[in-house]
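job 3f2a | input accepted
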Amino acid sequence: AVRTLGYLATNADSHVAIVRAGAIVPLVALLRGGSPAARGEAAWTLGKLSSEFRVAHTSAESQVTISQAGAIEPLVDLVRGGSAWAQENAAWLLANLAQNDLNNRVAITQAGATEPLVALMRNGSPAAREQAACALLSLAENADNHAAMVNAGAIEPLVDLVRGGSARAQENAAWLLAKLAHSDPNRVAITQAGAI
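job 3f2a | predicted structure (196 res):
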């Protein structure tokens, strides 16, 4: 049933109906307390409901509801220790939540997402690495997060993604390196990691 909601959410009318029917809160509850497989499914479906590529006004509404329902901490837990598919979808949903919302960026950072996202970018599946870079790029909109990313070891896996990730991963990694390069110590570290 959870996966079916995700597939239905790709249609604009269904997307709106799912959100308005109140499906987000039970999906977040499943994210918190379901089986490992159900948690991954919930993250995927919530990702579909939060994606701006669907219905912009409903997606923004969904993002607020998802974060207010308490999804951020269980998503960070999934990034730390879910299946490869669950990690990919948790990182994707965190990226969606952080993309246009400063409060979500702060909450995601306070939930401890930086280190597991950097670890996922280093050791995850190719798709998970791409989503982790996207999430970190969204979090980097808040310059206060730059030092935590560098301290967590983000520079080397970012350089690796620029060299050998998917086109989207390369783009996200390059943009994130550009944001991190606004300070002299980071520029030195980026150069030493072989980015140039």
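job 3f2a | The chain has a mean pLDDT of 89.
job 3f2a | closed
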